[in-house]
Amino acid sequence: NEGGACDGKAGSVVVPEIKFTKLFINGEFVDAASGKTFETRDPRTGDVLAHVAEADKADVDIAVHAAREAFEHGKWPRMSGYERGRVMNKLADLMEQHTEELALLDGADAGKLLLLGKIIDIPAAVQMLRYYAGGADKIHGESLRVSGKYQGYTLKEPIGVVGVIIPWNFPSLMFFLKISPALAAGCTVVVKPAEQTPLSALYYAHLAKLTEYVVQAGIPDGVINVVPGFGPTAGAAIASHMDVDSVAFTGSGEVGRLIMEASARSNLKTVSLELGGKSPLIIFDDADIDMAVELSRLAIFFNKGEVCVAGSRVYVQEGIYDEFVKKAVVAAQNWKVGDPFDVTTNMGPQVDKEQFERVLRYIDLGKSEGATLLTGGKPAADKGYYIEPTIFADVKEDMQIAQDEIFGPVMSLMKFKTIDEAIEKANCTKYGLAAGIITKDLNIANRVSRSVRAGTVWVNCYFAFDPEAPFGGYKMSGFGRDQGMMAIDKYMQVKSVITAVPDSPW
Ligand code: NAD
């Protein structure tokens, strides 16, 4: 009953067929209790793509209740890790079979490149799920020596109901970044996708339901619940819910604070926050300039700059600065902006009108702060939310465009002389999510890697992500780590069990 997804057309813009628009609670697609819906729009045109059921507090209550029941009385936490992993792998198989539809949904909902959706976003989401499927039977406690006539061990137990609140820039990857380790741990989840991009999350809910038909015991009802809606209503209801045990959040710093506050005021649920960034890319004199230009372009213009780890501050050492600038401008001008479904396009539209206007406001601010606009700086089309790849030079550390996360295709270029100066400047924002270093000198690479206060450092590469590599922020980029086996610990409690050994021989 899946059918082909790509059969609608609006002008020359391909629009995918949209099958799932209701809330997914306890294994069923249902209307919102209020009957309300909201629009999700296609950023290529600004047209309405679908009307999606709008969850509010009442729906979150129902979803949390379903997740609680599934946790307390259902099979999922009681299955062996091996079995959970097996079912998760089946979901991954189904995702692989539906890669095209999923990439189309994210493409039309978020303005993401269709080709990259097929070869990066969806496969990376699959890989994330498979990584944690493999981890589900490798969750171990420790045995404890304990002094006196006792012995002990630790039990790792699933934390319970996990609330997941995610942004719109990588709808598929974010979904699986959070739910995969939670599922491996044996938790149940209530996911609120971003209001801009609810469609693929609902499709994943459908695929989760389908696992029942391909394995004898699939993902039971109530284990994955998806409640699209707005932040201050559905999101806030999750964050302040008395029966949610943990919230995993990715998004802005402002909302991150609200989530922590809500936890503090409600049941002190654990919180993990992946927040924004203003990541530096530091290019040293000995770098291969063409490689550096290519990496710097990718670092800021990939996914239209809507990347929390975007290399938005580019520091270039003085010896190669002039040559680098010339080549970087040409590279930006060759970065093709257009329909994200066209395979020759490098960059699609910003996700929505609000982000589009926000980025343009920052570009105006950069000009008024005295930075030199080298290229770009305006909308790239009459219709839709397209912006030209933009480069500012002569940016100073105290300018707002050097401090704030713009979340758009805007590079700030700065010159430096010494290694110490580069380190100091790289560290001079409130963020600490990622950093890049380009040099052939191992000593420079090692020294700067250790000096930069960031959760991920890429040397002679950028965006090299892998499920094995823990990912998260220093400073105001948040706390807690996604990816890696340690992410499973966010979704577990550790229990110490101490047993008396009165007849211990020692
Ligand atoms: P946002 O923080 O406004 O929204 C993120 C999610 O939080 C959405 O699902 C939203 O509905 C929800 N939300 C909003 N208000 C809420 C509230 N009061 N209570 C609970 N949930 C609420 O972020 P955005 O503007 O949609 O996304 C852009 C920002 O997200 C960027 O500026 C960037 O800083 C950040 N971001 C960070 C990462 C990362 O991995 N660190 C990734 C993507 C985006």
Give an overview of the whole structure:
- The protein has 506 residues and is of the alpha/beta class.
- It contains 15 helices and 24 strands.
- The strands form seven sheets. A seven-stranded mixed beta sheet has the order 16-17-18-15-14-20-21, sandwiched between helices. Strands 11-10-9-12-13-23 form a six-stranded mixed beta sheet, with helices on both faces.
- A hairpin with a 4-residue loop joins strand 5 (37-42) and strand 6 (47-53).
- Helix 4 (114-135) packs parallel to helix 5 (171-185).
- The radius of gyration is 24 Å and the shape is globular.
- The chain binds nicotinamide-adenine-dinucleotide.
- Residues 165-169, 192, 194-195, 230-232, 235-236, 239, 250-252, 255, 258-259, 274-276, 308, 405, 407, 433 line the site of nicotinamide-adenine-dinucleotide (NAD).
- Residues 165-169, 192, 194-195, 230-232, 235-236, 239, 250-252, 255, 258-259, 274-276, 308, 405, 407, 433 line the site of nicotinamide-adenine-dinucleotide.
